Amino acid sequence: MASQEKEPAYQQSLALGWIAMAVLMVMTMVAPLVHSAIETDFSEYAYHPGPDGLDAYCVAISVYVGMAVLTQRLDFIWLRWLNVALFLSVTLFELLHQVMHFRNGMVHGLMLQVMDIVHHLIGIWMVALAYRWSRSGKYD
Length: 140
What we know:
Elements: H1 2-39, H2 50-73, H3 77-103, H4 110-135
Helix pairs in contact: 1-2, 1-4, 3-4
């Protein structure tokens, strides 16, 4: 009975995690765009994120929002494990993406670094929470 009471809390927390990560993704795109508009120099966008990167942003944000809705409304064992896999994948991808920026000398301002770090921390927390949800109630 106790694990059944925790499951809606897992779902709500994970859905909130997806939304929080989506907001951070949007902000990592909007903040530099506003900065470029203030400086009237959009040349950076020709190569980063570029057309393919912009498409990737759109897909990622759609996945984040879609997973939030699915996680909040549905409870299937495959969805629980999908949360684990996707949270782990997007967290590792974003971490690797940030490391590659550092490696290539493309260090962005403090504001973007903070948002990236918060994204990583939320991702790590959500991986742990998704794993706990995937294991809860499994043997009841």
